[in-house]
Amino acid sequence: MESSDIFLASNQFGLEVFKILYEKQKSGNSFISPIVLASSVAALYMGASEDTRKRIAKALRLDNNVGEEHVLKLQSYLKALQTQCADHVTLSSGIKILLDKKWNCLNGFKHKIQQLPFTEMQSCDFQHDTDTLAQDLHRWLAQVSNGSISNDLKVDTTDHDQSLSVISCAYFKGKWVHGFDAKNTQLLPFVVAPGHSEEVPMMCATGRYPYIKDNELRYSALELPYQGGRLGVVIILPDEYFGLEVSLLTVLYQFVFLC
């Protein structure tokens, strides 16, 4: 498979996960990083048996004979992107694999994990070391997220029956090519529920941006570029309030998510 095919497959995998999260919690907010999420599952591919490898490849929309070298491209791309964009944005990611002490992994798996960027493996005791494990995870999350994830985040380590846990984290901070002037901030109505809105401060700007209007799926999309020219954020807005149905989510994989 070509690199572009692997990245598009990771986007589609992330979309399927997002659909599940959306169906379970329509009233809340869900944030995922498709390529980091796919990299987390791909890391398990490195130590899986033949049958499990086929299942992982299927979930990631990859060929059964994809090979470890293609799986490595996911994380290699992240590392290259982080280096190439370092002058304009801050991008970091991390994957932590927790394996209960009572289980042994396949020979060579730990060594392969050590060769992967942003990935580490830790032996732990899910049954007896819950407090220590939670503290370790908080420290790790704070480090990867540049302090954005604090100890206020609840980390559930109370499932004593689990044997394996995979945690991924991504942090991104960039500056717009055309920044928002604080003087143009306005109090405007924001609909928070059907028939109910609240006035909130909104950033406002006028300019020329990549834009698309789809009358069939009834949505608009706008791209705001970050400095450096390689990255941007795509904002998708349904025509109707609370109109983000699962059918509309299918448009997401058309856009190339870089992180």
Description:
This protein has 259 residues and is an alpha+beta fold. It has 2 domains: 3-174, Antithrombin, Chain I, domain 2 (2-Layer Sandwich); 182-258, Alpha-1-antitrypsin, domain 1, CATH 2.30.39. The protein has 7 helices and 8 strands; from the N terminus they run ααααβαβαββββββα. The chain has helices spanning 3-24, 34-45, 50-59, 68-84, 109-115, 130-144, 246-249; strands at residues 89-100, 119-124, 164-174, 186-193, 196-202, 211-214, 219-225, 232-238. The strands form 3 sheets. It has a 3-stranded mixed sheet with strand order 2-1-3, sandwiched between helices. A 3-stranded antiparallel sheet has the order 6-7-8, with no helix packed on it. α2 packs antiparallel against α3 and α2 (34-45) packs antiparallel against α4 (68-84). The longest helix has 22 residues, at 3-24. The model has no long low-confidence stretch (mean pLDDT 80).
Element pattern in H and E: HHHHEHEHEEEEEEH
The coarse silhouette is globular
Task: State which percent range the strand residues make up.
Answer: 15-25%
**Spatial ordering of strands, largest sheet:** 2-1-3
CATH architectural label of the largest domain:
2-Layer Sandwich
Helix content: 25-40%
CATH homologous superfamily assignment of the largest domain: Antithrombin, subunit I, domain 2
| Gyration radius from CA atoms, angstroms | 20 Å
According to CATH, the fold-level topology of the largest domain is Antithrombin, Chain I, domain 2
What is the total tally of β strands?
A: 8
Q: Given the helix and strand composition, which structural class is it? A: alpha+beta
Please tally the helical runs, counting DSSP H or I stretches of 4 or more residues: 7
What is the terminal-to-terminal distance? 20 Å
Largest sheet: 3 strands, mixed
Low-confidence stretches: none
CATH classification, class level of the largest domain: Alpha Beta
Mean pLDDT: 80
- What is the count of distinct domains? 2
Domain Serpin: 15-258
GO molecular function: serine-type endopeptidase inhibitor activity
Organism: Biomphalaria glabrata (Bloodfluke planorb)
Protein name: Serpin domain-containing protein
